[in-house]
Amino acid sequence: MLSRFKPTWMIENIFSISPQFLLDNNINCVLTDLDNTLVPWNSKQGSAELRDWLLDIKKYGIKVIVVSNNSHRRIKEAVKDYELPFVPRAMKPLTIGIRHAIKEFHLTKKNTVMVGDQLLTDVVSANSCRVRSILVKPLVRNDAWNTTINRYFERIIWNKLIKKYPNLHWK
Ligand SMILES: [Mg+2]
Q1: Which keywords does this Swiss-Prot/TrEMBL entry list (predicted)?
Q2: Cα(25) to centroid(ligand 1), Å
Q3: Domain containing 19 — which CATH number?
Q4: From the CA of 108, how far away is ligand 1's center (Å)?
Q5: What is the number of structural domains in the chain?
Q6: Does pLDDT of 102 surpass 80?
């Protein structure tokens, strides 16, 4: 039961995920959450850090695709400067968005990773799809109101997770 919430890796933030780490783990596609993973939830645009990270990742032929529960409009505006494909209304923790991305972009699960800042949505949907996952810390400390509710339950699950899996730690 608890294993549904267990991320494969935990890394401080998405910009710390290096191309080498991905290549070493046979990953050629990064599916990523949008809000508080790629851009702050209350921001309409990315950052220089995001631009540099994307340039670096893409140099190695690694794809980056946004899989977000947010609307087409919100994602389009946030990523407009970065030529990033995206799947809106992904309905995480359901698997709809990830499965859609896998089909549309002809991905193989074993070469794909899902990155996100929430155990209850990003990690659960990846685990349900049998796709590896990377949990990152949220870019800003506060959240949209609906996420605040998730965070309450997330804290409870988190405490159980670290008890059961003492080897889980932030890289
Ligand atoms: Mg998020």
Answers
A1: Hydrolase
A2: 24
A3: 3.40.50.1000
A4: 23
A5: 1
A6: yes
Check whether 141 has a pLDDT greater than 90: no
- Residue 150 to residues 120, 128, 154, 162, 171, Cα–Cα distance (Å): 7, 18, 6, 18, 24
Judge whether 87 and 60 are in contact, CB under 8 Å: no
Find residue 87's DSSP bridge partners. 67
Give whole-number Cα distances, 58 to 13, 54, 84, in Å.
18, 6, 11
Q: What is the average pLDDT across 125-146?
A: 92
Task: Report the separation in Å between the CA atom of 116 and the middle of ligand 1, taken as the mean of its atom positions.
Answer: 6
Q: Is residue 143's pLDDT more than 80?
A: no
Please check the confidence at residue 158 and state whether its pLDDT lies above 80: yes
Dist. CA 78 → ligand 1 center (Å) = 13
User: For residue 37, how far is its CA from the centre of ligand 1 (angstroms)?
Assistant: 5
Residue 139 lies in a domain: yes
**Rounded distance, CA 119 to CA 76, Å?**
24
Question: What residue numbers bound the domain in which 103 lies?
Answer: 2-164
Q: What's the predicted TM-score (pTM) here? A: 0.96
**In this structure, is residue 169 part of a structural domain?**
no
